[in-house]
Amino acid sequence: MVILLINIYKKYRALFLALAVVLIIILLTWMNFQYVKDNPGGYDFYTNWHATRKFFFEDVNPYSEQNRLDVQNLVYGRTALNGEEQYRFSIPLYGMLLYSPFALISNFIMARALWMSFLEIALFAVLFLSIKLTWWKINRNLLIPLILFAFLGLHGIITLLNGGLIIPITLITLLILYAIQNKQDEVAGLLLGLMTIFPIPVGLFGLLVLIRLIAIRRFKVIWWMLGCLGLLVGFSIALIPEWILQFLVNLINAFRELNPGSPGSVLISRWGAVGNRFSIIISVIVGLLLLFEWWHSVKAGEQHFLWAAFLTLALGTWSGIKVSPLDYVILYPGLIMGFALLYERWKNRSIGTILLILALLFLSNWAIYLLTMSADFKPEISSFLFIPLPLTVIVLLYWSKWWVKKSNSVELEPTLIELKRP
C-alpha cells in the first residue's frame, strides 16, 4: 500500500505540488482576510486599485483630481491638509496591468487580502532568489531568523500592511539579474520594461544595468526592453493620449511631497543653507563612489557586477534621490549578499554575528518607529530610519570587498570580486 502511494505521488508529483500551492494561497488569503476586515489600512494599494477600477468601469481618468479626492475622503474623511499624504496615482498608466486582476474584485477587503497574499509570496521569492543569486548555502540556523526578520521587521511588515509596490519591484530587479546571468535576454528585456512601473527607487540600478549591457554587447536585452516599453506606452497613449504629461505631473508632485525623502532633505529642513551644503557634499561623495564602482564593474565577473548592483541600490538611498525609508525592502538583497560573503569567509563562526546584526536591525528600526509616534499615537516616518539598514548594507558590502581582496581563498583581480561557487 505504501509503495503504491509512493508510486502515485511520483507519477502525479507536479499535480500534488500545484494543489499544495493552491491550498497554501487559499489559507494565506483566508488569514489575511481575517486580519484586514478588522484593521483598516492598505491605502497605498487602495490608491492604485481604486484608480484602476474607476478607469475600467467608469472611464474616470486615474490622474484626475477627483480620483485623488476620493481616496483622501476614504482615508481622512476629508480633503488632505498640507503635509499629509495626498495619495496620488503616480505610476505609469500601464502600471494598471498589475492591479487589473484585483480591480475585478469590487470588495476592497477581499482585494486587499489577495494583494497581501501576492506580496507575501513575492517577498518570500525575494529571499529565495537573493540566496540563489549569491550561491549561499545558508545554514538552517540562519534561514528561519532571516525569514522572520524579512516578514516581521519594520520594512517588511509595513510594506505588507500598506500594500506598496516595492516588494514586486524588488523581485523584478532580482529576476532581471537572474535572467541576464542565465543568458535569458528576452526575459531580461521584458522585465526591464516592466521595472519602469515604479522607477524612482530603482532608477540608478536600471542605469547601471543598461551600461553593463552595452559594455558586454548584450544589445538584444536592450532591444527587447525598448520593444516592451514601446508596446506599453503606445497602448497607454491609445487609451489616454495625454497620460504621459499627467503622469509626470503627479510623479513630480508626489516626489516633492515625500518627507522625509533623503538624508539630504532632512539636513536642509533642519539647518537651512548649511544643511544644503552638507547635502550637496553627501550627494557628490555618493556620486563619485558610484562612478568608481560602476567603472570597475561593468565589464567584471558576475559576482562583482552583482555586488555593484546591490551597492547601487543601497547608496541610492543616500544619493539625494528621494526614497521613503518604508521602501527599504529594496535593500534586502544587498543585506543577504553581505551575509553570504560573511558566511563564505567565516562559515559557522559567522552565525552569531549575523544573528546579532539581524537582532540589532530589527530592534533599532522598530524602536525608532514606535518612539517617534505623535501624541495621538500616529506613527511618523523618522529621519533616523535613513541610517540603520542602508548603513549596515553599505558597511557589509564594502567590508566584504576588502576582506575578499585580502583573502587567499578567493581569486581576486584588481577591484574584481569573484566568489567560488560551492
Keywords:
single chain; about 425 residues; mainly alpha; two-stranded antiparallel ribbon; 18 helices; 2 strands; globular
Q: With helices defined by DSSP (H or I, 4 residues minimum), what is the helix count?
A: 18
User: Major sheet, described briefly?
Assistant: 2 strands, antiparallel
With strands numbered from the N-terminus, the spatial order across the biggest sheet is 1-2
Average the pLDDT over all residues and give the rounded result.
Answer: 87
Helical residue percent band: over 70%
Structural class: mainly alpha
Oligomer: single chain
- The portion of residues forming beta strands comes to under 5%
Count all strands and give the number: 2
Computed CA radius of gyration, to the nearest angstrom: 22 Å
Shape: globular
Kindly report how far apart the N and C termini lie: 40 Å
Secondary-structure element series = HHHHHHHHHHHHHHHHHHEE
Indicate the low-confidence ranges by residue numbers: 404-422
What does this structure look like?
- The protein has 422 residues and is mainly α.
- 71% of the residues lie in helices and 1% in strands.
- A two-stranded antiparallel sheet has the order 1-2.
- The longest helix is centred in the middle third of the chain and has 35 residues, at 263-297.
- The model is unreliable at 404-422 (pLDDT under 50).
